[in-house]
Each structure stands twice: as structure tokens, then as C-alpha cells.
Amino acid sequence: MPVKKYRTLHGIRGVAALSIVALHSPRLFGLMPGFLGLAVDLFFALSGFVLAHAYEDRFRQGITSLAFLRQRWVRLYPLYAMGLLLGIVQQVMCILYESPTAMWTWSELLIALPFAVFMLPAPLAHTFPFNGPMWSIFFELLANLVWAVFWRPLQSVRVLAATVVVCGGFYSWALMYWETPALGLTWVNFPGGLARVGYSFAAGLLIYRLRDKLRTPRIPPLVLMGVLPVMALFRPGLTGQFLSVLIVFPLVVLLGARNEPRSGTQRVYESLGKASYCVYVLHRPLAALLYAVVLQFSGQQMESFAPWGGFLLMAMLTAGGLVLTDRFETPARRWLTRRLIRKGREPLPAPGRVRLPRERVAGDRPDSVHEASTGSGSTSVMRAR
Q1: How many CB atoms are located within 10 Å of the residue 214 CB?
Q2: Does residue 62 come out as left (phi exceeding 0), alpha (psi in the -120 to 50 range) or beta?
Q3: H-type helices in 24-156, by residue range?
Q4: Inter-residue contact 140 to 385 (CB < 8 Å)
Q5: Potential cystine with 374: which of 41, 64, 133, 350 (Cβ 3.0-4.6 Å)?
Q6: What region, left, alpha or beta, does residue 143 occupy, with left being phi > 0 and alpha being psi -120 to 50 degrees?
């Protein structure tokens, strides 16, 4: 069966995940690269593209919205649960040892715990106190829910384009109103988070729909991977960040889908994409625990190891992410799938994998997209965060 492999998008996703690591580990890098927080918007656009590739034909073949959402939960929850456990350990240690970084009391943690277990924001100032980056997973699941319910009208390019325009207008208003691109992190700007994920996710869907109809120049994949970190070095203001989300990042996804790396570097791109979700989910609690361990046993602050300590952390997270994906996440997803999918029904593909009828494959163009895998197994190609 013909396969389209989005290795460049693999690499872009991996770099975006590592950019978030740098954002949340300023002491290890000796800087505060605030622009890197927009990597989340790039994630949303990538997610829209990848899920459209993975599930649009499945929806046409009769998959229900509930089945789709169940598959998304199976995909996301194992590593989410691991990150939650690490976050609980880190917060409990902060309280027990009266760490200056402790922001929670026992009562607040007990209130937040049941919400966190069900991947829901807590009714506190910080919606995900155990693992802050999980706010974006919640918003992505909201976008998945809306898409699953309204996928039929969104088959129309005009309706989808109108959705992009409306969400883009709402996002523009939210950015000006709150004067920050960090929308959705708290209850104060929660509505802005809806516009934020709505625009980028819908843009990813639209890019997938138009991917073969637009002519694009040949751009080296390494250049596309470097867009986010290079722009961060210039520290663009609010207007620059706004234009990045609305124009630059969707363009990066489009060009990344149309340009593939050379054979000698393909494994690197695939590995970055394969480890990206694990890196994103686990980096915050692991970095916090690392700070505590280093301070306890060496008596040195993390700033003394910058910036090499940061690059070492990235390497460790990437290598660990590859191991955990193979040894923990993939077996956990299979275990959950066996228990959640009724016997006699064909299981849904892992996110990113689509199997089309033979007659469709036979009639498609040689370079069309038929299947993209999730990073597990020998045919891994594309991974949806």
C-alpha cells in the first residue's frame, strides 16, 4: 500500500517540543525565551493536519464521534497519567520540604486531583497545578470534540475556510484585549484559549484539504525546523507573535508537508517526532525534580550549568522519550484498546494511520497520502500529539 511519510513534520514537532523545554527551563539555558511559548500554536496546527489525514476517511466510512474520542483518549492518557504522577510527587515534595517554589496547600491539591485524573482544569488560579503544560492537551481535546461532532459540514472547504476566518478574528480580538499570546493558561483568559486552539487547529485541517492544490517552493526541511528557535532569538513583540500564529506557522506546516528530508537524515526526523509527545508531557515535572536532586547532592544552583545543562536535559528527554514510547506508551495503548473496543469490531487505527479501500488506492495519484503511522512499530511515520 502506498505510503506518504511526513518526516519533516516529525522534525518540526520534535523541535517544537524541545522549544517548550527551553521555555520552562530558563535557569538551565540562562535566558527567558518567551516567544517559544508559541510552539503550542504550532502543535495545534500540526494536530489539525495530522488528524485530518488520520481520520477524515474513517469518518466517511462510518466511525462515530464517540469511537474517535475514545481513540484519542487511549492515545493521550498513558503518558498523561505518568506526567500527572510525577507532578504529584514533585508538588508533595515541595510542600513537605517547605520549598520556596511550593505554590499549593494540601487542600488545594486535594481539590485539583480529581479534575486532573479526568484531564479537566481545576477550579483554581492555575488550572493544571500538577503539570502546567497539560492545559494545551485539554484545549486540543476540546477541538477534537468539536471537529468530531461537526465533521460533516467541515467537509466543505468554504465552511472550513469561514471557520478559520471567524476563529482568526476572535483570536485577534483576544490578543488585543488581554495583550498576551499566552491565552488559555488561566481561567481569566480561558475564552482566548478557545480562539487560540480553534484558529490553529482549523488552519491545520484546511492546509490538509488544500495540500495538493497549492504550489510551494522547495524549502530545505532543516530551515523549516529552525523557524521557531531562530525567531525566538529576535524576540518579536506582540505584533510579531500575532503574525507568527496567523501566517508563519500555518505556512511552516504547509511547506513541511510538501518537502521531505534526504534519506541520510530521515531517521533523525522520525525519532524527534516519535519522542515529541513524551518530551512535552514529562519535561516539566522531571526538570523540577532534577533541580531538587542537583541542589541536594551538589549544593549548586542550576544556573551554574547553563547552557550546557539545558542541552543535556534535551538529549536525555529525547532519548528517554524514545524508550518510554516503545516500552510503556505503546503497550499501554494496546492494553487499553483491548479493553475498550468491543469484540467483533475492527479497532480504530492509531492516530496518524489510515487504511483506505483497495479501489481507492488503485486510483490515486502515486504521490498521494494513504497512510501515516504514529511512531510505533516498523512503519512509523506521523504522530499526533
Answers
A1: 9
A2: left
A3: 26-29, 39-60, 65-96, 106-117, 134-149
A4: yes
A5: 350
A6: alpha
A 10 A CB-CB count for 150 gives 13
Quickly count helices (H) and strands (E) in the chain: 16, 0
Omega of the bond leading into 307 within 30 degrees of 0 (cis) = yes
- Is the separation of the CB atoms in 214 and 254 below 8 Å? yes
Place of cell 514529562: 282
Buried b (16+ CB within 10 A) or exposed e, 52-91: bbbbbbbbeeebeeebbebbbebbbbbbbebbbebbbebb
Locus of grid cell 479493553: 339
Per residue in 336-364, pLDDT tens? 988 876 543 444 444 444 444 444 333 33
Q: Please state, in angstroms and rounded to a whole number, the distance separating the CA atoms of residues 199 and 194.
A: 9
From 31, 44, 33, 46, select the one nearest 235 (Cα to Cα).
33
6 vs 266: CA distance, rounded Å: 10
Q: Side chain identity at 371, as an amino acid letter?
A: E
Phi, psi of 357 (to 5 degrees): -60, 155
**Are 385 and 10 in contact, with CB atoms under 8 Å apart?**
no
pLDDT tens figures, 72-91 = 999 999 999 999 999 998 88
Task: Tell me which residue of 281, 290, 287 sits closest to 332, measured CA to CA.
Answer: 281
- Please tell me the pTM assigned to this model: 0.86
The grid cell for 19 is 522549544
Handedness of CA 145, 202, 273, 211 (dihedral sign): positive
